[in-house]
Design brief:
single chain, binds arginine, 4% strand, 473 residues, elongated, 60% helix, Fumarase C, Chain A, domain 2, two-stranded antiparallel ribbon, two-stranded parallel ribbon, Ribonucleotide Reductase Protein R1, domain 1
Length: 473
C-alpha cells in the first residue's frame, strides 16, 4: 500500500497516500530551500575537513549543492511534491547530480538539527528584511513630518480633543514606536547566535564532527551548548512572532488614524488614488482599504503568534513532529509584516494633508484650558484648585456660549483673584505650543531637534544593516 518509504529498512509497508499528504511540508518548505542548501554545503565541507568522509566526496557533494543553489536562485529548482520535505528534495536533486555519494551528505546529521539550523538562518535573514521595512516606513514618516513642523492639529486622549500638537510631533511618536520594533528584531540576533548542527537527532554523534567549523561557516558565533535544546526549542521563532505581532499592532494604530482622519467627519487627510479603492456600488466612495487591511492583518499575525505558542506549549523534549507546524505561521507573519510596512510607507509618502482642517480643529479654544490652569499655578495657586477654577470657567463658557479666549481679566477674577490678565493674553495657540518646550514636547525647536535625531538614528541603522549584509550575506 502507498509509496515505498525513503528509509524503509524497518518497514514492511509503504505509507498510505493520505498520510503522505498529511505529513508533507514540501508545499511551504520552499521558503527554506536556500538556507537548507547553505546548511548542507557547510555540513559537507566540515565532513571533508574533519576527515569524516573523503575530501573528494565532500567536494563532489559541495559542487552538486552549489549547482542546486544556482538552480534555486534562477527559479529553476523543481521540488517534487512526493518527497515529503525540503531536506529530502535537496538530497534527491543531489543524487541526480552526483550519484550515490549523495548518500554521504546526511552523515552525522538528522533532520532535527537540520531544520533547526534552517530556521535560525531563515530568522536571521527575515528579521533583517523586517528591519529594512521598518527603516523605510520611518523614513517616509520623518520626511512627511519635516513638511509638517508647522501643521497644528488637536492631540487626542479618549479620542476627545486634548491639547494642540504639531503634526510632526504626532508622526514622530510612531517613529519612536517603530524604532523600538526595529530594536526587538535586531535583538533577536543574540538568540540566534548558536548553531544547532552537530546535535544530530537529540544527543550528538559518535562521529568526529567539527561543530565549530559548521558554526563558523554559517555565520554563527559558536555551536549550541546543548544538543537537546538545539533540536527541541523554538523560542527564537516565538520571539520573532511576538515582535511581529507587536509591530503589527503598532502599525494598526497608524492605520486606524489614517482611516479615521480620512473620514468626512475628520477630513484631516486624503489618501492618494494609488492607495485607495472605489466601491462596486456607490460611485462617490473612496475607501481606505490599504490601512483597513493593515489593521485587519494585525489580527492574523497575532493569530500566528498564538498558533505557535500553542503548538510548543507542553511539548515534551525534544523534537516532536508538532514542531513542523512552526513554519506556516512564521512565513505568514513575515510576509504580512513586510508587505504591511511597505504599503504603509507608500500610503504615508503619498498622503495629502488637509492642513486647514487640522488647524481649524486645533483652534478649538477649549484645548487651551490646561494652559489657563497653569497660568494660575504660576501665580502660586495649587494645581488642584486651579483645575477646579478652570473647570468652572469652562462650564460657564459652555452655558453662555462664550469663547474661553474672550474672557476679560475682570470676569476671570470673579472665578479666582490670582488672574492678572485677560484670557486673550494668556491663551494663544502658538504660545500654547511654544511654551511646551521641555525635552520630548511639542515646541518647534524640540520637534526640529527630534527630527534631526530621528534622521541620525535612521542613517546609523541603515549603515548597521548594510554592514551586517556584507558580513553575512
Ligand atoms: N519537516 C520536518 C519539520 O519541519 C523536519 C524534521 C523532521 N524530523 C523528523 N524526525 N520527522 O519539522
Amino acid at each position: 500500500m502507498g509509496q515505498e518509504k525513503p528509509w524503509g529498512g524497518r518497514f514492511q509497508q509503504g505509507t498510505d497516500p493520505a498520510v503522505e499528504r498529511f505529513t508533507a511540508s514540501i508545499h511551504f518548505d520552499r521558503e527554506l530551500a536556500r538556507y537548507d542548501i547553505r546548511g548542507s554545503i557547510a555540513h559537507a565541507r566540515m565532513l571533508g575537513r574533519a576527515g569524516v568522509i573523503p575530501q573528494a566526496d565532500a567536494d563532489a557533494i559541495v559542487t552538486g549543492l552549489e549547482a542546486i543553489l544556482r538552480d534555486l536562485e534562477a527559479g529553476a529548482l523543481a521540488l517534487d511534491p512526493k518527497l515529503e520535505d525540503i531536506h529530502m528534495n535537496v538530497e534527491a536533486r543531489l543524487r541526480e547530480r552526483v550519484g550515490a555519494v549523495a548518500g554521504k551528505l546526511h552523515t552525522g546529521r538528522s533532520r532535527n538539527d537540520q531544520i533547526a539550523t534552517d530556521l535560525a538562518l531563515y530568522l536571521r535573514d527575515v528579521a533583517r528584511g523586517v528591519r529594512r521595512g521598518l527603516v523605510e516606513l520611518r523614513r517616509a514618516l520623518v520626511l512627511r513630518a519635516r513638511e509638517h513642523v508647522d501643521t497644528v492639529l488637536p492631540g487626542y486622549t479618549h479620542l476627545q480633543r486634548a491639547q494642540p500638537v504639531r503634526l510632526a510631533h504626532h508622526w514622530l511618536a510612531f517613529v519612536e514606536m517603530l524604532g523600538r520594533d526595529a530594536e526587538r528584531f535586531a535583538d533577536l540576533r543574540k538568540r540566534l547566535a548558536r548553531c544547532p548542527l552537530g546535535s544530530g537527532a537529540i544527543a550528538g554523534s559518535t562521529l568526529p564532527l567539527d561543530r565549530a567549523d559548521t558554526a563558523r561557516s554559517l555565520g554563527f558565533d559558536a555551536p549550541g551548548r546543548n544538543s537537546m535544546d538545539a533540536v527541541a526549542s523554538r523560542d527564537a521563532a516565538l520571539e520573532f512572532l511576538s515582535a511581529a505581532a507587536i509591530a503589527m499592532v503598532n502599525l494598526s494604530r497608524l492605520a486606524e488614524e489614517l482611516v479615521l482622519w480620512s473620514t468626512a467627519e475628520f477630513g484631516f487627510v486624503e489618501l492618494s488614488d494609488a492607495y485607495s479603492t472605489g466601491s462596486s456600488l456607490m460611485p462617490q466612495k473612496k475607501n481606505p482599504d490599504v490601512p483597513e487591511l493593515v489593521r485587519g492583518k494585525a489580527g492574523r499575525v497575532i493569530g500566528d503568534l498564538v498558533a505557535l505558542l500553542t503548538v510548543v506549549k507542553g511539548l515534551p523534549l525534544t523534537y516532536n513532529r508538532d514542531l513542523q507546524e512552526d513554519k506556516e505561521p512564521l512565513f505568514d507573519a513575515a510576509a504580512t509584516l513586510r508587505d504591511s510596512l511597505h504599503v504603509m510607507a507608500g500610503a504615508i509618502a503619498t498622503l495629502t494633508v488637509q492642513t486647514d482642517r487640522m488647524r481649524a480643529a486645533a483652534e478649538d479654544p477649549m484645548l487651551l484650558a490646561t494652559d489657563l490652569a497653569e497660568a494660575l499655578v504660576r501665580a502660586g495657586v495649587p494645581f488642584r484648585e486651579a483645575h477646579e477654577v478652570v473647570g468652572k470657567l469652562v462650564a460657564h463658557c459652555l452655558s453662555e456660549r462664550l469663547d474661553l479666549r474672550t474672557l476679560s481679566k475682570e470676569t476671570l477674577q470673579r472665578f479666582h483673584a490670582a488672574f492678572t490678565a485677560d484670557a486673550g493674553e494668556l491663551l494663544a495657540l502658538e504660545r500654547a505650543l511654544e511654551e511646551r518646550s521641555m525635552p520630548g514636547a511639542t515646541a518647534r525647536s524640540r520637534v526640529v531637534e527630534a527630527l534631526a535625531e530621528a534622521e541620525r538614528l535612521l542613517a546609523a541603522e541603515d549603515a548597521a544593516l548594510a554592514q551586517e549584509e556584507e558580513s553575512h550575506p
